[in-house]
Description:
By secondary structure, the protein is mainly α. It is built from eight helices and two strands. The longest helix is centred in the middle third of the chain and has 31 residues, at 123-153.
Amino acid sequence: MKTWLAFWYGIFKNNPTFRLVLGLCPTLAVTTSLENALGMGLAASFVLVCSNGIISALRKLIPAAVHIPCYIVIVATFVTATDLLMQAYLPALSESLGIFIPLIVVNCIILGRAEAFASKNGVIDSLADGLGAGVGFTLALALIAAVREILGAGSLTVWGDIAIRDIHSSTMVLAILPAGGFITLGLLLALINHLGAVWARRHGEPPPLPINLDCRHCTACPAGKA
Length: 226
């Protein structure tokens, strides 16, 4: 049951983008197309699952004084492997995503799950937590990218030649510009919060409050311990 909840919470209740509001740098940068969003989400998911599993397996061997550097080394190993594989087999996507693949090393979602979950739980539960967070992150990226690409380019490129062209002719270029990323994310966050409040009212529950698992409460930094 705990394993299933760890997976489920990563997708919905503790969604990295829409609930924890983490990893916004790649979220805003790569969501100009659905293909880029899926590529980034899958790469981050692979790193999340692998790093969570290894960190959980070694959690009793890693000294508390150097746990963050050890986590970064483990994460960097999988990020390097992912980057090299993408350069070899998906060169176009690798070039499109650019620096944001190597920057997965310092993605607060990866380090956050390692610190908050993998370092305190078993391997199977940690793998489920990493997979859930990865799927949740990928779905969030895909939703933002779909909105931006449809509005800004009038098309939807799923992967390679798999695309829907000429959805509409009146494009809104702002949607695929940096400002459009902020606007789209803000509107989607507002919509999700509103739907959460409506669901709570219909079930006789109080509106959901901001959760205490976001970056402001991260145990990896001094501010989170205050």
